[in-house]
Amino acid sequence: MRITLIILLLGLFAFHTHAQELPDDFLTADFHKERRKALRQLLPKNSVAVLFASPVRNRANDVDFLYHQDPHFYYLTGYKEPHSILLIFSEDQKEDGQTYNEILFAQARDPRTEMWNGRRLGVKGVKEKLGFSMVKDHKTFKEYSLSFKKFDKVLFIDFLNDIRDNPRDDADLYDLKQQFKNKASIPSEFNAMTNRMYAIIQDGTQDFQAKKRQLYSMSRFNPGALDDPVIREFMGVQDNEMAMKVMKKVPSTNLDAHSLPSFMGQLRETKLEEELVLLRKAIDISAVGQIEVMKAMRPNMSETEVQGIHEFVFKKYGAEYEGYPSIVGGGNNGCILHYIDNNKPRLGEDLVLMDLGAEYHGYTADVTRTIPATGKFTEEQKIIYNIVLEAQQAGFEECKVGNNFSAPNQAAKRIIDKRLAEYGIIKEGERHNYFPHGTSHYVGLDVHDPGTYQPFQANTVITVEPGIYIPDGSPCDKKWWGIAVRIEDDILITEDGWENLSGRAPRSVEAIEAMMAQPSALDDFILPDLGNKK
Predict the structure, then answer these.
(1) Of 80, 85, 305, 515, which is most buried, counting CB atoms within 10 Å of its CB?
(2) What is the mean pLDDT of the chain?
(3) How many Cα atoms within 13 Å fall on the side-chain side of residue 229?
């Protein structure tokens, strides 16, 4: 029996150490190492930044959702496994004769678990493939003797997620976070938003009135904040002398839950060339998906079928995931901005709003096209579509280095307001909800990538996505009801202008109708009738 067990284990080890074929265009270990170096240069003196892997999410019973690494964690490490913790130090640390300025606690190899759930790098693999010199088994974090009290700042990101505790694993993410909280002396009542508000009170670069406005705005997202005695007292100050007195009452702590997200936003906003290669591919894939659906679209299709064609194209090109839940809204469903049910059985004469993005090696596109299921726009559909197209073009022209982040939105809104009034859908100057969102956000490892939202810099990628949504029952002529149009492209801001990375997918009425008249590779893809009766 013992010999059989040994043979089995040896077989498992052999299976799991066999070279795995992988794509050869992932970001390199050097890229991630340089990103850690860039973060280290932003850290205050005598500080440590602590980052955690994403939690494993349960879908139902014993089935989990497909695991997706936290983008900050991936950006800094390239590591894709759960139950891990990364520490980056502003200065060198010493331990057992070793000097290091970063340490990754990673999952150890486990042949039995790997047989069921996939290969792990293990400590050795992380060192060899990801370029870390100091790596430890995540189970040893509990005994890790580093004193967090010695640092002037311990930077981390607020614990927002509801994380399950696996009672059979004392080093899962739940336990790692609890162990960190204990080591860093984070009280159970710690509030990251209050921590941020304290930092604003102590900020020496703003006057007290500016601070009060900022605190009041933040209090809407932090119930009970104005009951905090220090914050409440500061909201009542009338001059700088009073403000200085309250500043001295802010509790002293080395815990900082607000600076690290800001630093990561600064780093991730501007894309390096290696990132742009992957982002361009994700966007190209998404644009081709839009093209293939234009050619395949028929009135008898369902929203689900349209979604499936897009996602098939994604997979065909090697995109591992969708960057966000796919949105395919026919007719009135398109008026729901984040409509993801996608279960309308027949599109008929609807306009179909399709907001989908492929995620390729972590980087996600965000591309929207709106097309007529019949292949031809009606007169009303064409009018609304062309207003949105004009608004988008106006937004593009504002994508220049140094312009305010809000400039594309303001340009698009002016066009939409003017044209809706001209067609009698609104009265001139009337406030309305037909364009209820902004035009732009950053894209990258997240579909809504972090950034500073300060004036545009070169090598940032943003969306420009105006829209008009006229739900059934709107206070306008019924002929406009159920028309929803959004056109969204991913724009690279360059030193001397802008580039539409998703421009491969047709945008104009004429170009869309011409593409929809072309034959589709799926025309002859006819599945057998299942014979099910209702």
Answers:
(1) 85
(2) 93
(3) 4
